[in-house]
Amino acid sequence: MDGDTLYTIGELARRTGLPVRTIRFYSDSGVVPPTDRSPAGYRLYDIAAATRLDLVRTLRDLGIDLDTVRRVLTREVTVGDVAATHAEAVDAQIRTLRLRRAVLRAVAKRGSAPEEVQLMHKLAKLSDEERNRIITGFVDETFAGLEVDPEFAAKMRAALPELPDDPSPEQVDAWVELAELVGDPGFRGAVRRMAEFQSEESARGAAQQGGEDLTAVTVERVSAAIDDGVAPASDAARPVVDGLAAAYARAFGEEDGPDFRARLLHRLEVGSDRRAERYWQLLAVINGWPVPPSLVPVFEWFIAALRH
To answer: What's the count of helices (H) and strands (E) in the chain, helices before strands?
Structure first.
């Protein structure tokens, strides 16, 4: 375009590729006013107007509203400020779209009913703070009024779900399941009983004293028995039970015997709940941690053998 040449709205449309009606709209809005008028009253535009029109088109293509475009052109705000603000908005839109994609993939995978789809979408849209409130509310209710192991309580409070901006369908599934789990009165009651038992044990001074890792010992010996096909109610299970009971008695500074084994059985029954283990597995999936292997089959075998 020549710097001294004036162009009709039709010529400007052909040179810029914008429809005449769009240029007319910007002109009527005062965003790109005509430079002059022909004797017949037609709008005429110079190179400055054409450059201004290019900037308007670029900003509008980037999703910036017309009022903000007008403020940029009048230098009320800078292009940099506008770009930064809109970049944040686009980031938020991207996060929303990624979340929707993850929910849709999870729905497709699960074949969810309409009610479940609504629940999944609602839960997935929660902010980190809202998700944390669900978990901290569950933990607060579980430990309310109880003196429990501070280290365990701190672990529970620190392990919060952090759903990433671009979650996988598995992570969305895990968060929905976790939210349903902590809202289940049966699960809340079971965890409360665990906390009450721990508080009672602490009050009477029952605490592990030795350095022996009882979980590792139990897993090692019971897994070997399971691999060998030893049934918990069989005579072959007795040496395993005797060895483990003795290990637990040593660790707690007590004598092995019927009374101790009765208390040990109660301890294991209270602490061995598939849902409690599932709680930690779901948190691991959501947060991208390694998912711990299931210990439930091991302890269920030991409980059954102790009962026998």
So the answer is: 15, 3
Are the C-beta atoms of 102 and 167 separated by less than 8 Å? yes
Q: What is the largest CA-CA distance in the chain?
A: 113
- pLDDT for 182 equals 92
How would residue 74 be classed by pLDDT, with cut points 50, 70 and 90?
Answer: confident
* 191 contacts 156 by C-beta, under 8 angstroms: no
More confident residue, 224 or 75: 224
Place of tokens 């940099």: 80
Q: Is the pTM of this model over 0.90?
A: no
**Contact predicate 46/5, CB 8 Å:** yes
State how far the Cα of 28 lies from the Cα of 37, in Å rounded to an integer.
14
Q: Which two tokens stand for residue 111?
A: 């074949």
- Integer Cα distance of 254 and 108 in angstroms: 55
Which residue, 107, 205, 91, 105, is CA-closest to 147? 205
Q: Which of 287, 26, 19 is nearest to 159 (CA)?
A: 287
